[in-house]
Design brief:
Radius of gyration of chain B: 21 Å
Structural class of chain A: mainly alpha
Strand content of chain A: under 5%
Largest interface: A-B, 26 and 36 residues
Number of domains of chain A: 2
Distance between the termini of chain B: 21 Å
Radius of gyration of chain A: 25 Å
CATH class of the largest domain in chain A: Mainly Alpha
Largest sheet of chain A: none
Distance between the termini of chain A: 34 Å
Helix content of chain A: over 70%
Largest sheet of chain B: 8 strands, mixed
Number of domains of chain B: 2
CATH superfamily of the largest domain in chain B: P-loop containing nucleotide triphosphate hydrolases
Structural class of chain B: alpha/beta
Strand order of the largest sheet of chain B: 6-7-8-3-9-10-12-11
Order of helices and strands of chain B: EEEHEEHEHHHHEHEHEEHHEEHH
CATH class of the largest domain in chain B: Alpha Beta
CATH topology of the largest domain in chain B: Rossmann fold
Number of helices of chain A: 13
Oligomer: heterodimer
Number of strands of chain B: 12
CATH superfamily of the largest domain in chain A: MetI-like
Order of helices and strands of chain A: HHHHHHHHHHHHH
CATH topology of the largest domain in chain A: MetI-like fold
Strand content of chain B: 15-25%
Bound molecules: adenosine-5'-diphosphate, magnesium ion
CATH architecture of the largest domain in chain A: Orthogonal Bundle
Amino acid sequence: MITMFLVLSIVFMLMRLLPVDTYFGGRSDSMSDTVKDNILKQLGLFDPWYVQLGNFWKNLLFHGDLGESIVIQQGVKCVDLIIPKAKWSFQFGAIAMVFQMLIGYSMGVLMARWKGKFFDSLGNLYILLINALPAAVYFLFIQLYLSKVLHLPMFFEPYNTASRILPIICLSLGGIASNAMWMRRYMVDQMNLDYIRLARAKGMTSSQVAFRHVMRNAFIPMAQSLPTTLLFTISGSLYVESLFSIPGMGGLLITSIQRQDNTMVQAMVLLYSAISVVGLLLGDIMMMVCDPRISLVKKGGSR
Amino acid sequence: MSEMKQDVILSVKDLVVKFNLRGQVLTAIRGISMDLHKGESLAIVGESGSGKSVFCKTFMGLLDNNGWVDSGSIEYAGQDLATFKKEKEWLHIRGKKIAMVFQDPMTSLNPLKPVGKQIQEAFTLHNKVSAAEAKKRTLELLADVGIPEPERRYKQYPHEFSGGMRQRVVIAIAMACVPEILICDEPTTALDVTIQAQILELLKALQRKYGLTIIYITHDLGVVANVADRIAVMYAGDIVEIGSCDEVFYDPKHPYTWALLSSLPQLGVKGEDLYSIQGTPPNLFHEIHGDAFAPRNPRALKVDFVARPPYFEVSPTHKARTWLLDPRSPSVEPPEHIKNIRNIRKLKKEDAVNEQITR
Ligand SMILES: Nc1ncnc2c1ncn2[C@@H]1O[C@H](COP(=O)(O)OP(=O)(O)O)[C@@H](O)[C@H]1O
Ligand SMILES: [Mg+2]
């Protein structure tokens, strides 16, 4: 929580260092200095920094308010602009995440189980391709060719379910590759450990060992990064959203920056940093839940 | 110790084990023949790398993937274990008939599973019983291996146990199905001295209770003297001498056994450096000619470098692979201090008795 407070405060202070011109919505040439001063005063920018920071936190905590948009839709609350967009990003991200985990993890498990065999090589080829090719290349390929082959719409249409298939595929491919790669790697690491020899000496089959012991233990190191990945996947992908014209959050950030909508940029940066901090925190909690060796409250060890 | 029982439970003939290491072939076991007697405890001693673990792993089909039994046979219960290829064939042996206790109790348990579950797993793999029954058996096992408060311990994770307690858990896992043969691969090497004695006591008690046949793998002759009925001395993938505990300690015949005994700290004279064997073990990638120990043996005979000695019988229970036992060879006396072992061992035995009394 303290980290989050610090990060947000620092971001807020940094935004204050930007030139004030941006607050006039691109009309600074036609305004007199007094008008400008008035606007700035209204925004509270002449107050000492600690008052500004205090107001910012008061608004955020008690009113859930991140200020008003200046350029994109003047006078509309940033939160109200972001939420409808976030809904789309969230929807796509959540579905993609499910695929990434289901397919990625099972792929990794199977690859590790039959390490060095055909399926493993096939999986490695896939991982290699995904990592070696620039995402733009296969995204375009999917958009242009797969849409023809499968007769699917090339662009997103809100009321056409079929139009969601291709973007979700694009969103999932990378995650599947990295999930499979890490799962395989951690499982192979685990398989060389002593307790696996003991499990085999008990008379377990290799499959029983893989599924009852190795898989869960290999998952632990990944559990920590899981919430962060999850949050970032659901917070939208800049590239996929613009490629398929999905009205998501990724596009909104770009627009805000391009059009110098300071409060919007501020709101979105805050949102993203909050996401990473919450992700890290959840990651630690995940670790704690999964790994009995870690506990926040130190229990009296019985030796 | 106990009287000799001659029922053979497992019989190894001319066993050769090879490994493929980066394209090169290494011969880790070079034609071992040996019988294991029912109910005995056999100690296999030898320096690290002599092939003790590899030898015993072949009894359970647990060789690493790059290793294989090249020739020879392992007769057990009317089957030849050396011919087993598939995992399925091993499943009714591993854990059920032959079980193993590994060296390092800190790493041989799954850190993320409660210990009770890990023991129970070993039991339910081979016995179709209800969960409640399996748990009951697990609690019995925990009590059996001397873990207090089994109910509470059942739910705990390995990190909540000390090294000695963990080794007890590993032993409980091995005992889950009451195997016929228990292989203990350096069971106490990773533990403190006081704990070592307790674990050895436990193993002896279990052996008496269940009539186990135990193989102790160790490089610590002190451990051996305490527990073994018979001793097999291994060097470079071969058993160079085998005999009853007394025979090997009192009347060792192979120069390598002499060297091993000489390096016992108990034999050291105050103020003098402890004896250590010169040279390094042979390279197992090359074929070994003659007696593998000859290059490190200052008193080796010429023939030792040329021909591999056969086993010479010293007594019906004692044999050694050394040309020194050939009637034609010149007589080479063992080093003086080897002859003193008898006295030292007597003292040790009295110590042990005193210890028992004071306890
Ligand atoms: N997986 C393996 N690959 C190659 N060589 C091995 C492998 N396992 C064991 N060896 C070799 O076999 C020999 C015997 O090893 P081991 O049985 O572990 O010795 P120890 O007597 O210390 O238990 C050693 O020389 C070792 O290098
Ligand atoms: Mg070993």
